[in-house]
Specification:
Layout (H helix, E strand, L loop, with lengths): L8 H4 L11 H13 L6 E3 L9 E6 L2 E23 L2 E18 L5 E7 H14 L5
Antiparallel strand pairs: 1-2, 2-3, 3-4, 4-5
Length: 136
């Protein structure tokens, strides 16, 4: 189901709670909302649709990655960049890492560990900031 985008910085600044198998509806809504905003958005965290759960969705080429309870466990090659966000106006300077390694659960709640680089890594870092209540 397509959901409204949250712009309330008080809500966005709150840390998200762990996702569980009962949160599959949130995954569906998050993907539907991300796809509906594909022309202006490449990733979303669940709090952007009003759900304080540790779930992110990331556009990766022609498909989408969904990560539940993601934790970035390794970062390499820092760089400065400027990012925008569908929930916030304007852009902001930030530090990101070219290569990251992430532990997360897939939609079947199985633990995974993957390495990401480039734009996909940047998007994951941005969305993981959302889960921590970090507003850049």
């Amino acid at each position: 189901m397509l959901r409204d985008i949250v712009h309330d910085t008080f809500f966005l600044a709150q840390k998200s709670e762990p996702a569980t198998a009962k949160d599959r509806r949130i995954v569906t809504d998050l993907l539907d909302t991300l796809q509906a905003n594909a022309g202006r958005c490449v990733g979303m965290a669940a709090n952007m649709i009003g759900e304080r759960k540790r779930i992110i969705a990331v556009a990766a080429g022609k498909s989408y990655l969904v990560l539940l309870n993601p934790v970035i466990i390794k970062k390499q090659q820092p760089y400065e960049t400027e990012e925008g966000c569908l929930s916030l106006t304007g852009t902001r300077q930030t530090i990101r890492y070219e290569k990251i390694e992430v532990e997360f659960q897939d939609v079947r709640m199985r633990w995974q560990r993957e390495k990401f680089s480039g734009l996909t890594a940047q998007i994951i870092q941005h969305e993981c900031d959302h889960l921590e209540g970090i507003i850049i």
